[in-house]
């Protein structure tokens, strides 16, 4: 079991009048190689769940095991290591650095992994090629459409070859044609072995 959560809770302002239960007893198992979509209304806790599964946040209560490791017992440094090595993130807002080119944005996670400059540039270009953005490698985010920025964000997520890719509403801000293209890229990544 790659991801195993049991009875997971995320409660904000616990015990106060303004208490919010973003997650209330969620249980979920995801095997390696699965393609899973979590759907629900706005405000239903999807992003909160992804943030916990992606080790960006911790649950208030409950059990979370990632590839056999009890994530709830890890230090911030250990969680950062997992995020860096095992998880690629694709956010609805792209989260690209405005001052950097597409290639430089894609290289960022590789820098944190200590990948050398030559290999970093090669992997960044391979990832941009994979999402059809190699010809825009030297463009800054302001010089790209929303769909192009999202494809650069996907390239950044896959450049480090993480076994897990998490996407939070990756097509939410895109037109239907571009959204379909992004989903096709995600399905292609799944076929190549990403969960």
Automatic annotation (TrEMBL):
InterPro entries: AAA+_ATPase (IPR003593), ABC_transporter-like_ATP-bd (IPR003439), ABC_transporter-like_CS (IPR017871), MacB-like_ATP-bd (IPR017911), P-loop_NTPase (IPR027417). The keyword ATP-binding applies. GO terms for molecular function: ATP binding; ATP hydrolysis activity; transmembrane transporter activity. Pfam families: ABC_tran (PF00005). SUPFAM superfamilies: P-loop containing nucleoside triphosphate hydrolases (SSF52540). Belongs to the ABC transporter superfamily. This is ABC transporter ATP-binding protein. It comes from Candidatus Intestinimonas merdavium.
């Amino acid at each position: 079991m790659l991801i195993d959560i049991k009875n997971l809770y995320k409660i904000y302002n616990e015990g106060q009048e303004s208490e919010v239960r973003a997650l209330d007893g969620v249980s979920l198992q995801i095997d390696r190689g699965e393609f899973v979509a979590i759907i629900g209304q706005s405000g239903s806790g999807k992003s909160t769940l992804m943030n916990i599964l992606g080790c960006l946040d911790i649950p208030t209560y409950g059990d979370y095991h990632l590839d056999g490791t009890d994530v709830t017992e890890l230090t911030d440094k250990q969680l950062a290591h997992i995020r860096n090595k095992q998880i690629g993130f694709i956010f609805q807002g792209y989260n690209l650095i405005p001052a950097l080119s597409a290639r430089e944005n894609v290289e960022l996670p590789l820098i944190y992994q200590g990948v050398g400059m030559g290999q970093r540039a090669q992997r960044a270009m391979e990832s941009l090629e994979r999402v059809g953005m190699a010809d825009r490698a030297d463009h800054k985010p302001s010089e790209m459409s929303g769909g192009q920025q999202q494809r650069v964000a996907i390239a950044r997520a896959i450049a480090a070859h993480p076994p897990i890719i998490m996407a939070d509403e990756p097509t939410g801000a895109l037109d239907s044609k571009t959204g379909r293209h992004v989903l096709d890229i995600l399905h292609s990544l799944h076929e190549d072995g990403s969960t």
